[in-house]
Amino acid sequence: MTQTPLSLTSGSFLQLMWLASPALPIGGFSYSEGLEAAVNAALVATEAEASDWLHHQLHLTQSRGDMAAIAQAFPAWACNDTARLAQLNDWVRHTRESSELRLQTEQMGRSLVEWLKNRYAADNAAQTQVQWLAAQDASYPMAFALAAHLTGASVRDALLAYAFGWAENMVQAAIKAVPLGQSAGQRILARLAQEIPAAAEHALALPDAARQAFSPMLAILSARHEHQYSRLFRS
C-alpha cells in the first residue's frame, strides 16, 4: 500500500520559506563559495558551465557534506543531544579548507543565531538551545538545523528549504560573476530545483562514515580567491 507523505502545516511551510529566503539577514548573498575564483580562472564562462558547476557542487559538496550534517543534527536537536551536536559542529568547521570558507560558515552561523535569539525571545526552551549553540562558535549548518527544527518541519522538508536557499544565492552569484542574464539564471535554478530532491534523499541516507567534504579543486580555488586582485564576493 502506498503511504501518503505528511504535509507541512501552513506555519511550518511559511517559516521554511522564511529561512530559505535570500532576504534573511545572515549575509549569504556576499559569498560565491569559489565560483568567482572559477570565473577568474576561466573555468566558468558560460551559462552551461555555470549550470554544470553548481550541479556538481550540489551533489558533491552540499548533499554529502553540509546537508548530511543537517540531517544528522535534526534528531540530536529533538532530544537535545549536545554531545552529538558539538561533534557535528566541529566536523563542519574542520571541513573548511580555506580561511574564507571557514569565515563564511562561522559568520552565517553567528548571524542566524542572533536572528534566532530575536525570533524566539519569548520561548524559554528554544532560548536554552539557542544560547547553547551561541557558545559553540556555531557553524551555519548547525544553526540552520536548529532553526528548521524549531519550525516543526520534517528533516526532509528542512533539507529541501536549505538546498533551495543555497541554490538561489549561488545562482545570483553566477549572474553577477560570469555574468549572466536573469533568464539564464532562472534556467540554472530550474535545473537545480529538479536535482534538489535527489540530493536531499542522498543526504538523508548517509551514515557518519560516508559523510564527506572532499572537493580539492574548490579548496584550491578558494585559497586563490583570498588573494585575488578584484573581487565582488567574500568567498
From TrEMBL:
Alphabetical keyword list: Chaperone, Cytoplasm, Nickel insertion
Compartment list: Cytoplasm
Keyword Cytoplasm among record annotations: yes
Transit peptide in keyword set: no
Similarity-based family: Belongs to the UreF family.
PANTHER family, A to Z: UREASE ACCESSORY PROTEIN F
Purpose: Required for maturation of urease via the functional incorporation of the urease nickel metallocenter.
Assembly description: UreD, UreF and UreG form a complex that acts as a GTP-hydrolysis-dependent molecular chaperone, activating the urease apoprotein by helping to assemble the nickel containing metallocenter of UreC. The UreE protein probably delivers the nickel.
Record protein name field: Urease accessory protein UreF
Source organism of the structure: Comamonas jiangduensis
